[in-house]
Amino acid sequence: MKKFQNLVPIKDMKIEKEISMNKVIEQMFESGGFTAKNLGIGVNILEKMLNDENCLKFLSFPACIIATGTRGIIKDMIKRKFFDLIITTCGTLDHDIARNWKDYYHGDFLMNDKELHKKSINRLGNVLMPNESYGLIIEEKITQFIKEIYIEKKNELSTYELIWEIGKRIQNEDSIIYWCYKNKIPMIVPGITDGAVGYQIWQFSQDHNFKIDILKDEKLISDLVWNAKKSGALIIGGGISKHHTIWWNQFKNGLDYAVYITTAVEWDGSLSGARPREAVSWGKINERAKFVMIEEDATIALPIIYASLLERL
User: Is 284 tagged catalytic?
Assistant: First the structure.
């Protein structure tokens, strides 16, 4: 039996009335399997990261979750200044802006998409967005905002500066963009033209001297990373947001903390499915970093993680 003396036993979970979310997370960690344990590990890592005053904290996520109620979790984390820098996609701007004035609706993955198209309703998974709740309202508001910004002779902006200008005009506390402006947290969108907001910017630029300076975004990230003693990231999903986050962190010997949340598979070689250990080989995550992969739908995992962090912090 001596050879087993360092093993930690599995403990059964015991959920009772009025149990705190943090106690649930602790029990998930002690339960030993499978994704539940990784969720517990992830909360422990994020707690250490958020309490580390020497750590530059990144939040990376794709736009799709902003079409859901998970938008409220992202907004609250930014409102509470959990992160120093946000990297996302243009669709985040689209959904956040649209939902300030219009509703999205419950749908189903198996709805008849031909019929939806005939009714001018767009489907994102099981979320429905009528044209008036998406394209039309975005065109109206972004055209208005860009004209105001242009009149103020601000005709060449980075994406984070543009987002602050939009946030200043939204003045809605339900908005992610508003809180980025309010707390002066840079939100960087490397693929700014890949969405409805980006398209409206391009349209406006056709007859106005209006430009987006993405290299200014890169200068900001470079300055922050090169001056950081430590860095950490909560990386939700994959794509350009994820890669931009880990790419820049290789220049400071990699992330010191990394929590991935994704449902993407590893075996197709995609970045979205690549595990943290692969990023170690590139130097994008430090060899001695605390990291974990939580293989779960972010709309399930993130509210649980956030509720636990609120109790701990």
Answer: yes
